[in-house]
Amino acid sequence: MKIAMIGTGYVGLVSGVCFSDFGHDVVCVDKDAAKVEKLNRGEVPIYEPGLDVLMQKNVEAGRLSFTQDLPQALDGAEAVFIAVGTPTRRGDGHADLTYVMAAAVEVARVVKDYIVIVTKSTVPVGTNRQVKQAVRKANPDLEFDVASNPEFLREGAAIEDFMKPDRVVVGVQSQRAAEVMEDIYRPLYLREFPILVTDLESAEMIKYAANAFLATKITFINEIAALCERTGADVKQVSRGMGLDGRIGNKFLHAGPGYGGSCFPKDTRALARTGQEYGVPLHITEAVISVNEEMKRRMIDKLLDLCEGSFNGKTIAVLGATFKPNTDDMREAPSLTIVPALVGGGAKVRICDPQGEREGTERLPGVQWVENAYKAVGNADLVVILTEWNEFRALDLKRIARRMNVARMADLRNIYSVKDAKRAGFVAYDSVGRTAFERKPEAEEAAE
Predict the structure, then answer these.
(1) Is the dihedral of CA 152, 391, 45, 369 positive or negative?
(2) Considering the entire predicted model, what is its pTM?
């Protein structure tokens, strides 16, 4: 089957590469000439483990190509996937559908034979019916179907998620469209992965409801973490105790500085806005959005306490800037709230992140990027672990402490423990939802 993929961002590129690995002939289309040139040179514009190798394999096999030419991509295609951005619209929090609708209209003006137009972008409930109306208006004689096929890819594990999904969700209105989608996903049907075929609205809602629920789990455990700090409980033990309940599960119960990324912030806002439009306020989702922002600010207060009430004149090492490990994505990352507060407070900030510098140079002005953690902490007054990259999980803490001006750590991903920090020679350590410690000056200890 020939498939056209409109958009070579994270979702479009990963999906296009993986579909070609299924054996389909995939042509990825993008209006960005520089990006298309880069892809045709074999360069991947995003960081996703294994994507470069899989892309090269399928390009060499003749199943995958990249172009700016939409008519060429659509010539002979049985399905076209729209995988363009749906950023939060300014002013009202809703998803901006400008690019989705523009792509649908362009397809309508080019295609002559039957085709299934598949929305891969995350879109609010009712969007696919709007797409259908727009296509019909642009080309009344076109024979087509619209399908909804939301993505559930985790950045850093996207290929595994695509090839071995928890489920594939397909929303259709006709048996013909369902059969085309079945052909596209045949390798997964044959391996009996769950494929749920629904109506358009249910497919659209599943995506938003799933992301809002996961964001709720993260935010819930972060609130419990704040309470643990006041009561003396350990949130890691609390999370483990909760997660052993099969009805709850242990995923997304890791306390930290709040969720970020390309999906949860945008999708929770869009879902809340949809609820308002339909007169069904989603109070839980609205609270999740508010509490998540509050959590990021609470982290700043932690760092301020460790810096004796002022960032001014302090040197602070930040380990990790991307919103999660194994990605270069910094959209809505906690670092975008926390680091500007440090710089704005007069701190000299050094950041070490394996993949974050390319995007972070523009997003986080006024900081110094360094290649490793040990260089970052030289003569620092505080080290902050902000993203749990593997290379930050097994640091030589004694070496870190020796290199610092004052050995203080804010472990915002709960990688280490008070015991680890004390043994390494740190004078202060704080984390999220667990006991902190600060060694008092000898004179104070003697007085007590």
Answers:
(1) positive
(2) 0.91
